[in-house]
Amino acid sequence: MVVLWKNNVSVAFTYVYIYIYMIQIYIYIYIYRVLNFADLRVKRMDDRFIMKVYRKETHTNTYINWCSNVPRSVITGAMKTLIFRAYELCTLREDREAELDFLKDTFIANDCPVKVVDRVFGKYIPHKYKPNQAESELKPQNDYENVLNLPFVRGFSEKIKRELRKEGITVVFGKGKTLESSLCKLKQKIPKDQTKNNIYLKQCTSCNFKYIGESGQTLKQRDIGHKSDINTRKSRSGLYKHIRDNEGHEIDFQNQKILDREPNMFKRKIKEALYIKAYDNGTLMNPDKGTPVNDCWNEFTIDIRKSIKN
Ligand SMILES: [Zn+2]
Prior knowledge:
Elements: H1 2-7, H2 9-32, E1 34-37, E2 40-44, E3 49-53, H3 72-89, H4 93-109, H5 114-123, E4 147-151, H6 156-166, E5 170-174, H7 179-183, E6 198-204, E7 210-215, H8 219-231, H9 238-245, E8 251-261, H10 265-279, H11 301-309
Parallel strand pairs: 4-5
Antiparallel strand pairs: 1-2, 2-3, 6-7, 6-8
The structure holds zinc ion.
């Protein structure tokens, strides 16, 4: 210890703490015969171990308040979870009953109505602790095939949940739109010409002809390519051909519209083809119809047209 002290004071202190901690454990195990671990207290008797729920002295006994903006089922669910813990951890019946009484008082102190606390604590017994539980009495498990996620609105959402349960639909509550999500936009907005993976629409400044394209590059980078095609008079460029055939017409590079975004290149090309198909009324500058797509997609043409107008 002296050598350690000379070499490194903090290491020496660490050893002192470990030594004191080991003495404490020794006292608890061999003198008091008790060991606390997480929420479990284990006591060693002469012939067996006895367990019960353990709370640190610093535990605040604060659970979800009855007035919190959460479904009531979440609060009664918290009660059932703690009842289950009392059954699981307490070896002796008197310890379990003392723990359940303590929990009842605690939930009432957290503003839960006495009649609700009495109902839950009076009725709920975990399945595995029910005496003579017949197989046929076990509740069937939800298969979660029909699940609807709705934002939670107190009173209203719980009624909908009850009604839809009769129709075999399980409702789970999501957060919905919150004040935080409305006010805190921490992600910096990227300027339009710096965005990637777009399906975009350009227009002529003089007529109603349009061009639909796609690119994994930023709009700015792609426009450099389009402008280069026009300047070098590339005959396969739809934009160049429109300017060549219509004197005085220009492409509006400033006010282009982003129709869609898709990071996957193959999906992006399919989407581009679908937009071209939906827009193809004889006023497109595109030299071709993009990647070939099956006619079954025609079903969505009307919806895509509507989305373009919006
Ligand atoms: Zn034009």
